[in-house]
Amino acid sequence: MSEQIFGIHGAALELRSQRMGVLASNIANAATPGYKARDIDFNAALEARMLRQRGTSTEVSGPALVYRSPTMPALDGNTVELGREQVAFAENALAYSATLSFVQGKVNTITRALKGE
Amino acid sequence: MPDRAPMTLFSLTERAMQAQMVRMNVATSNLANAGSVSSTEDGAYRPIRAVFATELDRASGLASVTSSELVRSEVAPTRRYDPAHPLADADGHVWEAPVDESAEMVEIMESARQYQNLVQALQTAKQLMLETLRSN
C-alpha cells in the first residue's frame, strides 16, 4: 500500500537511511587497521528495489554493498579516506532531505484530499 | 558484541567515540610519563597503544569499532649516564621512558579530529531523523 502511495520515494528514503549507516560505519572505522570502506551502489540498489516492487523480480537481497577503491592505500590496510566519506555523507544527507520533502508532499496531498478542502 | 541489542546509528557512534576516547587517554598517559626515569631497564615506562578492531553487526550491516586491547610497545628505554641521580644504578645509569612526544601529540590530534567527525555525522543523522519524525 505504502509502495503505491510513495512510489520511488519510499524506497529511496529507506536506501538513503541505510547508506547513512554504512557511511557512518566508515567514519567510525577511520582508524581501524585492515578495515575496508564500504558503500551502497545507490542506483543499482534502487533499481533492484523497483524491479521487486513491480513484481518482475522476486530476488530478495540486501542493498548492493561495494568496497571503495582507495586513491592511496594506507600501510595498515585501512581504505577509509575521511574527506571522501565526509563528502559522501553530506551528499547523502542532502538527498535524504530532498526525498523526505517529496514524501511529505505526497502525505500533504492525501491529507488534503481526505479533508476535502 | 556484548549486548545483543541491534546496532543503531547511535550505538555505533557511541562505541566509536568510546574507542577514540580510550586512544586519547592512552596517548595522554604516555605524554604524562614522558621523561620518567627508573633504576632498572624493566622498570622503565613503555608507551601504551590502543588496538582498534571492527565490530560488525550482521543483521544491520553496520560496523562499529572497539578498542579490543592495549599493548605496550617494544621500544627499548633510553639509558642515560647520571651518577648524581638518586635512582641511578651501580654503574651510574638511569633508564628513561622512550616516549616520543611529537608522535603522541599527532596521535591526540588525529584522535580529536576523528572524534569531531563522529559528532558531526551523528548530529546530521539525528537532525534528519527528527525531520522525518516531525513531518506531517
UniProtKB/TrEMBL annotation, chain A:
Keyword line: Bacterial flagellum, Cell projection, Cilium, Flagellum
Record protein name field: Flagellar basal body rod protein FlgB
Assembly with partners or alone: The basal body constitutes a major portion of the flagellar organelle and consists of a number of rings mounted on a central rod. In Gram-negative bacteria, at least four rings, L, P, S and M are present, whereas Gram-positive bacteria lack the L and P rings. The rod consists of about 26 subunits of FlgG in the distal portion, and FlgB, FlgC and FlgF build up the proximal portion of the rod with about 6 subunits each.
Species in which this protein is naturally found: Erythrobacter litoralis
Organism domain of life: Bacteria
Transmembrane segments: none
Flagellar basal body rod protein N-terminal domain span: 9-36
GO cellular component: bacterial-type flagellum basal body, rod
One GO BP: bacterial-type flagellum-dependent swarming motility
Record localization: Bacterial flagellum basal body
Job of this protein: Structural component of flagellum, the bacterial motility apparatus. Part of the rod structure of flagellar basal body.
Keyword Cell membrane: no
From TrEMBL, chain B:
Ranges where the Flagellar basal-body/hook protein C-terminal domain occurs: 92-133
Keyword Disulfide bond set for record: no
Any Pfam family the entry gives: Flg_bbr_C
Keywords recorded for this protein, A-Z: Bacterial flagellum, Cell projection, Cilium, Flagellum
CC terms in the record's Gene Ontology section: bacterial-type flagellum basal body, rod
Subcellular location: Bacterial flagellum basal body
Protein name as catalogued: Flagellar basal-body rod protein FlgC
NCBIfam families given in the database record: FlgC
Subunit structure of this chain's protein: The basal body constitutes a major portion of the flagellar organelle and consists of four rings (L,P,S, and M) mounted on a central rod. The rod consists of about 26 subunits of FlgG in the distal portion, and FlgB, FlgC and FlgF are thought to build up the proximal portion of the rod with about 6 subunits each.
Biological process according to GO: bacterial-type flagellum-dependent cell motility
Family, as annotated: Belongs to the flagella basal body rod proteins family.
